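User: Okay, second chain of the day. Same drill as before: sequence in, structure tokens out.
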Amino acid sequence: MKPEGAAGPASPTAMKTPFLDERSETVLLDIVEKFIENGEPVSSRCLSKTQPVSPATLRGVMADLEDMGYLRQPHTSAGRVPTDRGYRFFVDRLDKTGIPLAGSESLNPHLEQGNLHRMLEDACGVLSRSSHQAGLVMLPAFSSTLFKRIEFIKVGSQEALAVFFSEMGSLENRVIPIEKDMSQEELTSISNYLNEEFSGRSIGWIRKELLRRLRDEREHYNRLMKKALDLSSGLFNREETGAEALLVNGALNFFDQPEFSADVGQIQALLKALEEKTKLVNLLDLCLRQDGTTVLIGEESLAEELQNCSLIARNYKRGTKNIGTLAIFGPKRMDYKKAISIVNHTADSITQLLSR
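Assistant: Same drill. Structure tokens below.
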């Protein structure tokens, strides 16, 4: 489930939402705001300070909201706290387009220096520091990377170091096998051929073109070109990195949250999820297929150890194409207005830098 303008995984708590009259809606929104601010169950006496009705009337409204699944009472005689359905109601009624930016840092324009990875690391830190939660950034898939140039350097009788440069300044090294009689001069010629043929193209496009040439036109190439296609086909067809594609900053902020600080087992499960990254990558991959801002609350994450948390995500683009996702990840009792503002601002900043 998500803010207006974006799609997300279906949530049992968001289906067949009971109708609320104006008073019930006002009381529910007030309870969620007060609980986010103070972290304490909200009582009718506390509500009566801001609601123009008696505590007895408020108790009746709160009991009805509890029956409908928007609130719960953690202890007998205690006040109420929001459920996932209550948080969802609150988030769906936020003005997502008009929220002023609150406490977010600006990105350093590292992209102007040609270093996308450094800029995304900076963005991950901005998300964490500005929200005091965990910041997540999913890097662009290898297939969407734009190829700039490649250099082959002979390092053994049957090995060469392939040095790959992307348009955004990232660099990858990989040792590949070569024929025993291949010279450095021949490797340099192969590098020049590939750079002339494929510079500025995405890895995904290059993969398809290599397959086409190897399948349909191989007999038309001379010996050097055949070797170039053989060497590069293996290099460009490597598997996507999965969890290695996720940057995480600020995981220790969970220790500052009262919801988790007293529960060692829960903290351990969360830190393990942040370290292993796989389930978070799966969530962000779902968000990558959507447009707009995605907010996943509690059980909407579909992963048991993440169900006391919320994730606010937004894609960044190259042109009109989504190439990666960034997010703030923290407890359900987070400042959603501020978090959505920070995520939107950071994603828009990266998109603008990528368009330069």
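The longest strand covers residues 321-331.

User: Thanks, on to the next one.
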